[in-house]
Amino acid sequence: MELIYVDNAATTAISPEVATVMHQTLNSCYGNPSSVHAIGRTARAKVESARKFIAHKLGVLPKEIIFTSGGTEADNTVLQGVVHHLGIKHIITSPIEHHAVLHPLEHLAQQGLIQLDYVSIDSDGTPDLEDLVRLLTRTSAPKLVSLMYVNNEVGTILDIQSIGRLCHKHNALFHSDTVQVVGHFPLNLGDLPIDFAAAAAHKFHGPKGVGFMYARSKTGLGSLLMGGAQERGMRAGTEAVHDIVGMEMALKLAYESLSNDTTYLKELKTYCLGLLKEKIPGISFNGASDNLEKSTHTIVSLRLPIDKKKAQLLAFHMDLKGICCSKGSACQSGSETGSHVLQHLLSERENESPSIRLSFSTHNTKDEIDTIVATLVEYINS
């Protein structure tokens, strides 16, 4: 049975060109980038070349790009770092952020280190800006706002310009998890009112275990990891040169084909939405997932009109048919409590119906969409 993979928001297949350059680097560039001899300097040159390329593509300074093990480390470094190094006492977020944001913030609040507030969220997953202003003016304490650019479960795109301007107007730092944006949308961080951002290479056909943090210069953010002066003192630990080179290549390929890929994926998502609405009466879509203007072209989050009992075997049925998708985010797929995002956006009754997330890459085809929809229809009518 040929598998159909539509879980690209969880991770993507590594590009052959990325695997090749990583293999070459592993074989030929084994030096420690912190060593001063020739082999070490060769490794350092590759790391810094990747840093300069990524910084250039995102419109920022090379020193503002810090390599990490991925988005989770980048988010944690920012959120814990602003508290321990910058004296932030008040943090505002939303209840539908990734757990890489929610869990460290909950931990900081439990320790009594911050006042934690959650901005109200509309049914499509966008924050209420009036409520955000209310929270920003609630205290005079040093504050930070953390809101993700594109939601990883329902695909909602935030008006990051308006949010960032509000934050800076009220003297708050602004952090955004941009994991679902980098490599998928044009992104000039230098032109956006964002102070901190996070990215992960495996979301744009790069290797797992590597990503980067953007920290606007002069913010004063410090390192959470001690033991070395790597990454300009911002992240101790020997850099994984092959991973960093692989991430550079993945980002290069992503932006070289960005326009064509975006057109293809928008057409694929439009086809998918049309077929779902045609073949499954009563189908619903979560957040702004069925709106191409308000949601990313890579994600469709749908809710099926079947009862709670039948819903229990849906994920098993899809897997049995060779369709690799998610019932929320990959981080939630093994949870008995389901998705915290959908629990917040949907009513209790709506949450009784099963939701699945289809997330696309250019590897997907209309024929695969046909098979997916036919499989769903078969299950509903069985």
What does this structure look like?
It contains 12 helices and 12 strands. By secondary structure, it is α/β, with parallel strands linked by helices. α1 packs antiparallel against α7 (241-256).
Keywords, please?
single chain; 382 residues; alpha/beta; Aspartate Aminotransferase, domain 1; Aspartate Aminotransferase, domain 2; 2 domains; seven-stranded mixed beta sheet; three-stranded antiparallel beta sheet; 12 helices; 12 strands; 13% strand; globular
Q: Which helices and strands occur, and which strands form pairs?
A:
Blueprint: E1 4-5, H1 16-28, H2 38-58, E2 65-68, H3 71-86, E3 90-93, H4 99-110, E4 115-118, H5 129-136, E5 143-146, H6 160-169, E6 172-177, E7 196-200, E8 211-215, H7 241-256, H8 258-279, E9 284-285, E10 299-303, H9 308-311, H10 314-320, E11 323-324, H11 340-345, E12 355-359, H12 366-381
Parallel strand pairs: 1-11, 3-4, 3-5, 5-6, 6-7
Antiparallel strand pairs: 2-8, 7-8, 9-10, 10-12
Helix pairs in contact: 1-7, 2-7, 3-4, 8-12
Count of DSSP-assigned helices: 12
Overall helicity:
25-40%
Give the overall pLDDT as a whole number: 95
- CATH homology superfamily of the largest domain: Type I PLP-dependent aspartate aminotransferase-like (Major domain)
Structural class comes to alpha/beta
Question: In the CATH classification, which architecture of the largest domain applies?
Answer: 3-Layer(aba) Sandwich
SSE order in H/E notation? EHHEHEHEHEHEEEHHEEHHEHEH
How many domains would you count in the coordinates? 2
CA-CA gap between termini: 21 Å
Cα gyration radius (Å): 21 Å
Largest sheet: 7 strands, mixed
**Beta-strand percentage?**
5-15%
- Can you tell me the CATH class of the largest domain? Alpha Beta
